[in-house]
Amino acid sequence: MASIVYILCALTSLMCTVLLYRGYRVNRFRLLFWSSIGFAGFAFNNIFLFLDQEVIHNLDLSVFRTIPGAIGMIIMVYGLITEET
Length: 85
What we know:
Elements: H1 2-27, H2 30-55, H3 62-82
């Protein structure tokens, strides 16, 4: 059951990435661009979580799965701070 949740979270983050980037291409509102990059990091985080918990059992990927999420969050916060509306 947990593997289904991991996959659905990764797909949701990936779909948010695609939709935010499509919105950026239409409106050229840069906050959408920063948010899409942030959600891409969250998607990679969820993919690595699935690999760590369900596929690769003898290797700890906790550092590798935390780095994309942290980078995504940093990029999203940067976009929130620097962009003006």
